[in-house]
Amino acid sequence: MPRHTKRMPLRRTAIACAALVGILMFASMLWGAGSLTVLQSLQALLGRGSEEAIFIVHELRGPRTVLAVLVGLALGASGTIMQSATRNPLAEPGLLGVSAGASFAVVLAIYFGADSVGLHFSIAILGSLAGCFLVLMTTQLRGAGADPVRLVLAGAAFSSILIAVTTLILLHDQRTADEIRFWVIGALGGRPTSNLVWAAPGILGGLVLVAITTPALAALSLGEKVALGLGHRPAFTRLLAMTGVAILVGTATAAAGPIAFAGLIVPYFARRLVGPDVRRALPIAMVLGPSVVLLSDILSRLAVRPYELPIGVVTACIGAPVLIAVVRSHRLPRL
Amino acid sequence: MNSTSMKSSIRGPRGFWLLGGGNISILVNQRGVWAGTFLLCLLVLTALWSLTAGTPALTLAETIGALIGAGEGFNVFMIQELRLPRIVAGILSGAALGVGGCLLQTLARNRLATPGIIGIDDGATAFAVASIVAIPTSLAPPMLALIGAATAAALAFGLGGGGSRGYRFIVVGIAIGALFGALTNFMLARTDIDSANLAYPWTVGSLNARSASTVALLAGCVAICLPIAKILGRDLQLLRFSDAVAVGLGTRVKRTRLAILIVTVCLTAFAVAVAGPVGLVSLAAPEIARHLTGHRGVPVINSAWAGAWIMTAADWVGRTVFAPVEIPVGVITAVIGGPYLLWILLREPRRTA
Amino acid sequence: MDTSTRTSANGLTQTMDISTTPASGQKAARAYPPTELSTKDLSLGYGERKIVDQLSLCIPPGKVTAIVGPNGCGKSTLLAGLARILTPRSGTVLLDGRAISSMSTREVAHKLALLPQDASAPDGLTVEELIQFGRQPYRGLMRQWSAQDAAIVQAALKATQLETLADRPLDALSGGQRQRAWIAMTVAQDTPLLLLDEPTSALDLGHQIEVLELVRKLSNQGKTVIMVIHDLPSACRYADHLIAIHRGAIIAEGKPADIVTEALVERLYGVRCTLLSEPGTGAPLIINPVSIRHEND
After folding, report:
1. Does B10 sit within 8 Å of C146, measured CB to CB?
2. The CATH number of the domain where B106 resides is what?
3. ipTM above 0.85?
4. Which chain A residues have a beta carbon less than 8 Å from that of B331?
5. B321 in a domain, yes or no?
């Protein structure tokens, strides 16, 4: 029995989500793991207060907030497109091993001595392309659509292989281990500001690619045969879309490390708000993504003061219930 | 066929030997026996080989001698006190994981539903780590591992539709596993470096640091659970059909499922308590067992042998390949088992079960 | 004639005659004790939805009863309730006067066999192995196989004419053959009651007739058969007793020739038609159907 689902109007929802981003950005500047009080942070934001406070707020939290927004943009969009391209509501870059591919590529690069940040970004994109290739292969199988779990498990297998090989490398080479140990945990803090310079064009490029494929993806949701009948080319569309996803995920991972579940949470809520049509869900996901990542980042700073939690812990705590909710709805939603 | 002549020449169904006849009759799967013998021989050979390896390496003759107490005192000591306990731990934990995987796969009617994927491993690890770094408790880590495994299983089972719907069970299990994994990271992030180092062996599958008392617990658990699993095997066979068919044939489906879950949780918890979360043994062992045993019945015992063999072989590889650096057995199983899992996933054209 | 003797749980000695002389069409005299299945104010549902409400019926023993009705009327749900697959919300199902919920599921399996709609078997299972599972309710931990089990399995193969296919895997059979194999399993279960849920839905005409003739044959041997079937003409042709369900309630019950009227067809299916009587069987045939289903139906 179809349930009558409420759908919010697109423009109003987008504006509301954008407002939320603004509020969270503000909050991100004010709260932190250190000993700075909110009032002191506020003063520093306005340019007053101690030098240390100004440094923390402007040089540390500022770039961190911007990074969170960019990463949220990338992960939200890539999760939505991935789910649309695979027609699988459980698909997301972290679970499917795309993030793992990107981070493994960077680990390899560091191991082999590559040092420049720009190189890291390009290599990360190559790594996530490998992960996307695996995803694409799985979608070509007969019956894979009927068994959405298989995709998730393939991604999990892929990730576990990469993690194991990474551990091997860490055991083997102490220098790499020191550099990687910091990098391989997804975290927004402590990243060089140059990351932002490299991240922005990558994310922009990925978004453009993804936006181009959106109308075709919407037709794909009606089924491959129907889409063919309407004159689309499903395989090419998927390829293009996943390349966009690879660029987005690769860039985000190179900038902030692998962050799982963000790409699952954002599309889920976006679809709950405006319905399953990817043409509507994508813009909302792009605006919702930064909120989710900002919120997770703020929580990661506050949860275990004065230490910081890896952001992956927070996203997992939010994402796991979302995953359970998705699968407990009576049928797995067909995308 | 005339019933009066049956008694003298009764044969079991095709593929089975019939022991007894009359009031007591037991069926034995022929192919299962051959497969089991093969796996057991393989296990013994691998275990012996692993015993010879290390620094210093011994010859096979010296090793066998040392096992029975003959030969140089030093060799005897090294074999019996140092290497043998590790091999035994590997065999026991591998067997436990193999059986757990076999049981859970059959319960969920899905070959991909194994304790590691369902989050039972992560639950056991999280609680065990908690006992070391967070909550001061008088309970030893293995008992907490048991409680953690039970909690994770209960959550996955309860939220996942009682195991009758395979895929839902798996996905909820993945989510539960991720939650517990995050919880473990959370605790490790909070604590000081010393406690973190203490807890570290629990987070990676390794046969290096295990305590004799825990191994004894595992041995006891295996000794009790293996016969129970075999007895449950009859009802377990019927769970491979759809629920309606099983009930129609008089199976108490809910009760059997619960019993199987309890056995799986116990086996997995103690295996993790001994060896840490070693992935993919519980996935690969039943596959190998089923491949060798065929489709008749549920290969509980053969999964135990296969699991024990995988653990022993992986441990041997980890100890020798990059000697003297030791690679944890969990890494080996992931590096080899991962592609194997991918191969299963990518070549299987039909719905599992 | 083949016979195999067995003593049932309550001490009655029963003889299972599986006479197989199709040419003569002889019906073997047989003795399953007349087993009564009935319900009293039975309510069934899934989640919050109530599908069957306060339904009381009594299945005539020794006959073929067909339960018919439009999609979603609750007939499969009713069968699930009768077979104790589904726990009732309220009311009881009575098997020989005893509440079925008070009997152990094994005890029920000695009296009642079920063939569900989408029965699935593990991969690689052969026909004979499937039929052997029919003996499961009689096997124990220490008594896993007996001469009687072997004989009954062979008899079931013979009754369903699957002897030549005994070693074939189920997946290699045609739809009709596969259904016969599942029915053979219920035959091996050796119960007085047999419940079938849509045994012919996925089959073509030839296989449908094949299966329904087998059902008829089993009934002639004394089994009480209850089948849910959506094809009204088949139901009329092969059933002795018809129960018409609409929206979870019985709207007509009795012999097909008596109760199937044009008014009933219109009420059940929203189809206006003319009914003819089939020469030979007296079963009602539908001709010139016209859909008159309204939007708010």
Report:
1. yes
2. 1.10.3470.10
3. no
4. 164, 167-168
5. yes
Q: Is C289 helix (H, G, I), strand (E, B) or coil?
A: strand
- Dihedrals φ, ψ of C244, to 5°? -100, 125
Q: What pLDDT is attached to residue B209?
A: 65
- Show the tokens assigned to B43: 């296990």
pLDDT at C25 over 80: no
C227/chain B closest Cα distance in angstroms:
15
Placement of tokens 């436990």 in the chain: B96
- DSSP state, A89? T
Local structure of residue C96 (DSSP, 8 states):
T
* B350: nearest CA partner in chain C: C123
Give CA–CA dist C43/A307, Å, rounded.
58
Beta-carbon separation of B241 and C4 below 8 A: no
Q: Given CB atoms, is B228 within the 8 Å cutoff of chain C?
A: no
| A141, A160, A307: residue with CB nearest B346 | A141
Q: Where are the domains of chain A?
A: 8-309
Tokens standing for residue C39: 């319900």
Residues C141, B234: C-beta atoms closer than 8 Å: yes
Nearest residue of A to residue B166, measured between CA atoms: A149
A312/B350 CB distance under 8 A: no
- Residue A131 banded pLDDT, cuts 50, 70, 90: confident
CATH 3.40.50.300 fits A8-309, yes or no: no
Among B241, B247, B251, whose Cβ lies nearest the Cβ of C121? B241
pLDDT class for C116, splitting at 50, 70, 90? very high
Domain-embedded: residue B167: yes
Task: Give the pTM.
Answer: 0.82
**Nearest neighbour of A149 by CB, restricted to B112, B183, B334:** B112
Q: What angle do CA C43, C46, C51 make, to 5 degrees?
A: 45
Nearest CA among C267, C273, C266 for reference residue C288: C273
The reply to whether B57 falls in a domain is: no
C-alpha C107/C-alpha C39 separation (Å) is 18
Low-confidence stretches of chain B (pLDDT beneath 50): 1-8, 350-353
Note whether B178 contacts A310, CB cutoff 8 Å.
no
- Domain of residue B226, residue span: 39-48+95-346
CB pair distance less than 8 Å for A164 and B334: yes
Residue B30 inside a domain? The answer is no
Q: Which residues of A touch B171 (CB under 8 A)?
A: 90, 149, 152, 323-324, 326-327
Q: Looking at residue B57, what is its pLDDT?
A: 75
Cβ(B171)–Cβ(A149) under 8 Å? Answer: yes
**Count of the separate structural domains present in chain B:** 1
Quickly state the pLDDT bin for C213 (edges 50, 70, 90): very high
